[in-house]
Amino acid sequence: MSSLSRELVFLILQFLEEEKFKETVHRLEQESGFFFNMKYFEEKALAGEWDEVEKYLSGFTKVDDNRYSMKIFFEIRKQKYLEALDRHDRAKAVEILVKDLKVFSTFNEELYKEITLLLTMENFRQNEQLSKYGDTKSARSIMLVELKKLIEANPLFREKLVFPTLKASRLRTLINQSLNWQHQLCKNPRANPDIKTLFTDHSCSPPNGARAPTPVTLPVAAVAKSSTYAPLGAHGGPFPPAAAAAAANANALAGWLPNANHSSSVQPAVIAASASSLPVPQNQVSVLKHPRTPDTLGMTEYGSSDHEQLMKRLRSTQSVDEVTYPSPSQQASWSHDDLPRSVACTIHQGSNVTSMDFHPSHHTLLTVGCSNGEISLWEVGMRERLVSKPFKIWDLAACSVTFQASIVKDSSMSVSRVAWSPDGNLIGVAFTKHLVHLHAYQGSNDLRQHLEIDAHVGGVNDLAFSHPNKKLCVVTCGDDKLIKVWDLAGSKLFNFEGHEAPVYSVCPHQKENIQFIFSTAVDGKIKAWLYDNMGSRVDYDAPGQWCTTMLYSADGSRLFSCGTSKDGDSFLVEWNESEGKIKRTYSGFRKNANGVVQFDTTRNRFLAVGDDSQIKFWHMDNTNILTSTEAEGGLPNLPRLRFNKEGNLLVVTTADNGFKVLANANGLRTLRVMEARSYEASRTPLEMKVSSSAIGASIGPVVSKVERVDSPARPTPSLNGVELMTRGIEKPRSLEHVSDKTKPWELTEIVDPTHCRTVTMPDNLESASKVARLLYTNSGVGVLALGTNGVQKLWKWNRSEQNPSGKATATIAPQLWQPNSGLLMTNDVPESSEGAVPCIALSKNDSYVMSACGGKVSLFNMMTFKVMTTFMAPPPASTFLAFHPQDNNIIAIGMDDSAIHIYNVRVDEVKTKLKGHQKRISGLAFSTSLNILVSSGADAQLFFWNTDSWEKIKSVALPLPSGKTPQARWNVFGSGCHKNLRLRCRIAPSAYISPASSNSQTVHPVVVAGHPQEANQIAVGLSNGAVKVIEPSEAERKWGIHVPVDNGTENGRTATSSTTNTSEQLQR
């Protein structure tokens, strides 16, 4: 089908949708295969109309088209099968099994057999993999999430998930334009043409009384439900229905009137008159050639000349109707790859991130505000925190008595907003109590106090910069229902009153030389203000009538708002400024949001919203969701996000007190350049000592990157106009002005419990024994301990107000987790276990744990604690275990006899044996990105194995002191091995073992584990069976580093060091 024919189908689809021919619309979608209506597909799937679901899908793909299609059909038929079983309709289940699911048996016979066995169960939830199956409604919702991902990834659906961007009633507009053209070609055009049919070309009757050939007399109104047509006059046509034009004028006049309630629909309902015998003005042809902006003004006049100018600027000139859709010929303009969706890095902030903003010209410089009042400056290209400023009142005496009383009553303080000034020289910070801080940024890590303002009574909810009269100012709003404008000296220039509820956000903007401010309040009211103290110019309701934020596109031509209602319904809309009406409403939000969604715009093209632990993207011209990403997981329910000014980087908050940096291809290149420059700069003043073994030469990319050692050197290039200052250029005035990575630190002895935070794992089990192995779950929410008696214990942290991320922490005690059955995860322990080497490993998704204590290897289900299987009975005994990172069914097992078994759990067989070591295996580590397994043995040998062929690549001898056994548990891949690692901190047992609990000096640490994400958190297993989680104190935050305090006082910890070490480090 030609391109124009394809476009015609889209025009017909729009026409049918507007005319409410619902069934016909979807039949045409299916038969043409041009547009897959995800919303319709979801509705039918959630309703369980499986026949219609498959019928609709069949227009776009078949079961055996590709693996994505096969998986889509399998998930649908599996859900239909499980629902029949849940209804105890065995006959229907058997029918589905035979007719629908049988086709998949040729691809996976084992799976088909497993599905068949469900018929024999009273409740299929007895199957371990289906134990979490809830009710039908929730199961369908979960299935839909998976189906949407599969459909979006399926190449057969490419360019079929987004409907073209069309103006309303585009087909009728084209017909009207055609009639216009035909009327212009008439030799003797009449003032009131009689249009009775579309079946033949229009021609006015000759003036001498002769009649033109009689056309087919079928009026337009007879072939369509014209009551829903938009007024054609809006498109320059000569035949506007009179009633429609009147309705349009009435709506335009009412658009921006105070207290007007507006519909959120894109087009108002219009009643069209009959299309026949409609009057047409004599000058209509000239109007068609030179369309003019309507003279109606949709705002209340206040008699101000500035206001009149503003209204002129806000009126949008009608544009020529155009149609665009994602065809191959237009893909050069934009693509999904323009969106920053690849996770470049994850950065731990240490406190809950509440606001972020990128520098306007240095596109990798990010300022971050936190819930504890701290602000930080990050160079995300180098993953480096340049500055950290804890909250401090700069001049309490200058603050109001009200604020002084409130801070005495409750000293907690959170950042509500951080924002860069347009020139990048200032950072504005709004706090949840009264205050606004302005920091002057001088480059590099030089951030100085500039101004403190006691701005509002209560919280300061938002802050922005503006330029009234070409003078940089700060606009703030707060709980006191006021909007205020301040100059950079702290003088209040304007005070806007009129809101009846706390003001939630402000959006200053400029149209040519007219400047104004939009503001939103928590009662859903939106107001606009000029800088004249004459009151609000408009007053209308935001969708949802609760908390809303407004933003303009980068070029200032389009206005958007995003917010949430008290009922949890979220709205993202574009506004028609000239009428104060909603132009389009974007769909795709989760219902019942617990909070307020946040959004941002970029490149005059895309919108991004944090919703449902995802980042959702829209194209500005299409109301359907473009795509979404979970950013590899770990996002909070309603993540905050921010684009940089180029749109190639996007930061999003994480649930564990940090943020992720996402990038597109250009953004990744920028970050790589920054990282390379940082690395080269770090090498210059410091001789790097890297293992000189033959690994690098023979393995190639295995040891591909050397982690730089902390150095006071700073990179010197000028990036985006901001020069990064180095120590070689200017020595810091004091240690307070040096970033963490450049400070000399002292070896710290922690001996007092007050210098760290400790929590003891609760244990009500009688099976206490010495902890033999200890590890964190991969998600970081639990700790797993294996005792010498073979019993494993699992502690988990729950999500709560005190611990919203649910991650392991030393501030809250976890729960000793057990299933309702009361089962324990108990290993097979031989009678004579002397000399046994306990070993344990977790699957990547924390679903299974595998362990052994001298006996058989046991595989446990982490939810039910049931033993899934046992294997590899001694002798020889297992000494180390490791799951394959891509396949939980593949396990590497190190043996006491020096062999390594590659075992497939599903088929219960050893696939191959790796031989080369001379003594027992002491460590195994899979690469997560390379096809390599590294093994270490008691023979002081490292072996590298190819995981495709399981052939040995290389062996390396390790020069170790006698009696020491290597373990391949460090990160060999991508970080290198440093010989010059330095000791930062020693933690004495007295800091975490109380004398009362030890009763004697016999209790001592026997095993330690590091948190997978929190670099400064460790878990320690003791000889008496106790397990403790230890973190630095809240004041210190890091082991062995003295965090400077603004007043210059030290933190008071005991420290031992030599001046020789300190001076030596400074020289390096």
Question: In words, what does this structure look like?
Answer:
WD repeats lie at residues 453-496, 914-955. Residues 1048-1068 have a biased composition (Polar residues). Residues 34-92 form the CTLH domain. Residues 1043-1068 are annotated as: Disordered. InterPro entries: CTLH_C, LisH, Quino_amine_DH_bsu, Quinoprotein_ADH-like_sf, Topless_fam, Topless_Znf, TPL_SMU1_LisH-like, TPR1-like_2nd. The model is unreliable at 209-332, 682-743, 968-979 and 1043-1068 (pLDDT under 50). It is built from 17 helices and 53 strands. α1 packs antiparallel against α2 (22-32) and α5 runs antiparallel to α6 (90-101). The N and C termini lie far apart (70 Å). The longest helix is centred in the N-terminal third of the chain and has 20 residues, at 67-86. It is globular, with a radius of gyration of 34 Å. It is α+β, with helices and mostly antiparallel strands and 1068 residues long. The strands form 14 sheets. Strands 33, 34, 35, 36 and 37 form a five-stranded antiparallel beta sheet that branches. A four-stranded antiparallel beta sheet has the order 1-28-27-26.
Short description:
With 1068 residues, the protein is an alpha+beta fold.
